[in-house]
């Protein structure tokens, strides 16, 4: 069963998909945000194309576990997405996913330009991989 990971941002939406066994996360091309309806349609197209049966969206909590403005935007996005698709959509705490993505790219010696293009995709991979690991450990 494939699971889709989403890193929802103001300018871009990072996308990742699991392998059919739900073991590893692979990045997909990032969606450049235009308007919410087009963004959701692009996500739905990927869900159908990749035959995803579940979606996990990163929820950016504050260090004290509260939900700020960005987290509220993610919750609003998830609620809207749920109105358009009938598969489970979960959120997962994504604190530090973008920091971890940038650190991994720095260690890989990627240029600033390449990091900017890939950071959302890698953040989505990290969000999805964390979710897959947690799911595996609770079974």
In the CATH hierarchy, what is the architecture at level 2? Answer: 2-Layer Sandwich
Number of strands: 5
Mean pLDDT rating: 86
CATH homologous superfamily assignment: YqgF/RNase H-like domain
Quickly describe the structure.
The protein is α/β, with parallel strands linked by helices and 139 residues long. The protein has helices spanning 36-50, 69-82, 97-107, 112-137, and strands at residues 2-8, 12-18, 25-32, 52-59, 89-93.
Which key features would you list for this structure?
139 residues; alpha/beta; Nucleotidyltransferase, domain 5; five-stranded mixed β-sheet; 5 strands; globular
Structure description:
The two termini are 15 Å apart. The longest helix is centred in the C-terminal third of the chain and has 26 residues, at 112-137. The chain is globular and about 35 Å long. With 139 residues, it is α/β, with parallel strands linked by helices. It has one domain (2-137): 2-Layer Sandwich (Nucleotidyltransferase, domain 5). The mean pLDDT is 86. The chain contains four helices and five strands; from the N terminus they run E-E-E-H-E-H-E-H-H.
């Amino acid at each position: 069963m494939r699971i889709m990971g989403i890193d929802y941002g103001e300018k871009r939406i990072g996308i990742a998909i699991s392998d059919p066994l739900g073991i590893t996360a692979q990045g997909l091309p990032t969606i450049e945000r235009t308007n919410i309806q087009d963004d959701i349609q692009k996500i739905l197209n990927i869900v159908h194309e990749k035959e995803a049966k579940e979606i996990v969206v990163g929820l950016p909590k504050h260090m004290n576990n509260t939900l700020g403005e960005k987290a509220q935007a993610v919750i609003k996005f998830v609620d809207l997405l749920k109105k358009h698709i009938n598969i489970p959509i979960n959120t997962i705490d994504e604190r530090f996913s973008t920091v971890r993505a940038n650190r991994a790219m720095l260690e890989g010696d990627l240029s600033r330009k390449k990091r900017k293009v890939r950071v959302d995709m890698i953040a989505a991979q990290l969000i999805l991989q964390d979710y897959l690991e947690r799911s595996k450990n609770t079974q």
